[in-house]
Amino acid sequence: LPDMISISIDAMSGDSGLAVTAPAVLSALQSTPDLKITMVGDEKLIKQAITAPPANLEIQHASEIVAMDEMPALALRNKKDSSMRVAINLLKDKKVDACVSAGNTGALMVTGRFVLKMLEGIDRPAICTSLPTMSSHCWMLDLGANIDSDAEHLMQFAIMGNALVRAVDDNHNARVGLLNIGEEQVKGNHIVKEASSLLQNTSLNYRGFIEGDDIYKGTVDLVVSDGFVGNVALKASEGVARMIQHFLGEEFKKSTLRKLSGFIAMPVLKSLKKRIDPRNYNGASLLGLNGVLVKSHGGTDEFGFERAIMVAYNQAKNGLLEKIKHEMDNMLHQEYM
Amino acid sequence: LPDMISISIDAMSGDSGLAVTAPAVLSALQSTPDLKITMVGDEKLIKQAITAPPANLEIQHASEIVAMDEMPALALRNKKDSSMRVAINLLKDKKVDACVSAGNTGALMVTGRFVLKMLEGIDRPAICTSLPTMSSHCWMLDLGANIDSDAEHLMQFAIMGNALVRAVDDNHNARVGLLNIGEEQVKGNHIVKEASSLLQNTSLNYRGFIEGDDIYKGTVDLVVSDGFVGNVALKASEGVARMIQHFLGEEFKKSTLRKLSGFIAMPVLKSLKKRIDPRNYNGASLLGLNGVLVKSHGGTDEFGFERAIMVAYNQAKNGLLEKIKHEMDNMLHQEYM
User: Fold this and answer.
1) Does the distance separating the beta carbons of B213 and A239 come in below 8 Å?
2) Tag placement on chain B: N or C end, fewer CB within 10 Å?
């Protein structure tokens, strides 16, 4: 493992650009002695945002920005000097160990795939992130990179995800569940049924089908799903969490007595908010690419963006890419020959 | 509209059978003067459970019970005198206006479809229920009756759902959203894109694509989705809600001071619990069948089962079936000719 971990940051993307990325970079560098960052973007603006750059910060100029609503194919074709593209180029050229962007998901996927290429044995990238559970946390993929995965793709997602859990959590026996609409073998569409058969023939600790509510129970360490289903499940979950917080706020405002009880319960409410704060889970990996590429939520703040940087740092430090390659080699040469 | 609403109840199904259905029936009858119920199941056991039957309660004997894990096709073929089948037969024979069962979803779907048949113009049934939102509530379908709906099916779901919102909420301009993984036209699979085009050509108040978190924002009154995606979204939502309640409980137990603050905040916590109590949303309609058939959660208690009875009561009282037929006629003869 390398002594220093270096990360390129697409400093201009996201809803707030440098206003979020600059303070997040400074904070991450301050708390992580073995981290080196290259901020990619408009040099003049970056220098304005960071007037006293620390020793482990470099700046790489890039003249363009991919807009948050830009068509991915157009961004790839027309913006070869975008902060996103140049940051990914640094990763491809092995100048850095990982790359983080809060940019347009589609453009990041397309550009990442074009520049970095896919790992051998993987057909498609998958978006993977960690989620809170009642007991600890789990990982889930795909969260929207694909909308029509077949059984083979789902199996590849499981293998990549398993390598991630091994690398980042040092968990060598990750319990893997396949998201379905019923636990019985008779339910589900033909894709998940076929994927389930494939997974049973791997060396993974495959636990069979799980339902949507199992995600948060902590019964598995890795949830595998098609990107359409995974994305809707994740967004619906965020929606419910926000609604409950909204209701809680409303209920505590209904009378003076309740306001007082809310004041008294404040430490608990703050702890709860922290535990379900989506910023703590910011930073999704684009697994399957030949490089550690992490996507931050576009609308996050500096705290959330720093979390995304730390996700990339942990994955690079723990040799995620080598572990995925190793798992794929094992699978390709043992199970299928 | 009829003066009395009569409902047949599959009294034997669900995880707890009569222990739940009997008290729920008695409570519903007591609170609803224009409700008449026929309990279907083992006559001897029903009479044991209800020693003093009220005037508006009838009992219809049925000798068999469909097990919760029984294969739907086998239940249909072999259990012609099951409480589920006989209860649905009463609906088919117009002896009652609606039917409620907490039995095996698959068996209820298959039996309902076989006995009641589909409405004209509807290819498949869809499961529809109401959900809480920040501002009020919305309706969502399909929640798992289908796992591979095409664009035409999704449009039919929208038409049925719209009729339901009109019938039950007296909302004649229901905002309809199509569940997708992005709000932009470029995202999503070909099925939702095609369904979106179809919906734009109807007279529905179609608002375009929505994402998972929009379900709970209250931006639409009707959420349309494939059953696989809808089921996972609903279950994931339930899982998050339970996890947050679990966290809240944990946080309030962490110290004596916090326990005290939890005691003081109890009224608020109880109100919150009530607002997100899934029992309040129990009772899903199997729309598309030629009869008002309502599915209760198998594991619910008497409070939840009574809610399911009231869902059936409201739909029958408001002429749901006639409204769906009317909407389908309009669509078939105006938009498509």
Assistant:
1) yes
2) C
